[in-house]
Amino acid sequence: MQSNQQFIGAGARELRAFLSGQDPVAIARGLIGMELTTRTDGGLTSGFITETEAYWAPQDRASHAFGGRRTARTEPFFAGAGTSYVYLCYGIHELFNVITGPAEVPHAVLIRAVEPNLGLEEMLRRRHMENLKPQLSRGPGVVSKALGITRIHNALDLLDPASPVQLSFGRAPVMAEDIVATPRIGIDGAGAEWASRPWRFYHRGNRFVSKLNAFR
DNA sequence: ATTCCGATGCGCT
DNA sequence: GCGCATCGGAATA
């Protein structure tokens, strides 16, 4: 699976099959270009996914579900493909993930950046910004801020049309040659073996990407 | 009960 | 490039 092109026009059923039928690294690639939409008091806002990271628990030391750790916090990891996982990072930022793989298999993809689409005015308001700049929605914490995602959106089914946070195939596909792979960000504590894996992906040339070429 | 520290972002130098 | 805000989860006692 090198891009999402085969999914144009497909719906939630096909998306569910994709999210449950691949390894999380393939899915992290495939999610580039797909659309994340939220519905709140502020109306509808959305963005096209430009940057992701794969978290391949139980083996992956960088995952909260490493070793199959199962607590109240990690419960969404085990709920199956298309479930949301939102958690508080550094006491400040709410980070949004898509759970992938079959139920009981704790795979996840972190959404690190999006290109704004619907509801730009509302997103600017949430970010206390006057005009559109790339920092509106590049970085996992500000993606949630811009889209209005908080921990109340944890453990939702992102493919349910009634959900306030939804994932869909989005617009034109992103070709494999336009997806760049680098090591993941901010996981040095997991050790070199895991920190060096090129499991971060971003849309080449897109301004809405948190760190171009982050080799560390 | 206590301690440690993180899948970050922002403002200032 | 650097310091620091800020707080809940999980491990330790």
TrEMBL record:
GO terms for biological process: base-excision repair. Belongs to the DNA glycosylase MPG family. GO terms for molecular function: alkylbase DNA N-glycosylase activity; DNA binding. Its EC number is 3.2.2.-. It comes from Neolewinella xylanilytica. Keywords: DNA damage, DNA repair, Hydrolase. InterPro entries: Formyl_transferase-like_C_sf, MPG, MPG_sf. It holds the Pfam family Pur_DNA_glyco. It is an enzyme of class 3 (hydrolase). This is Putative 3-methyladenine DNA glycosylase.
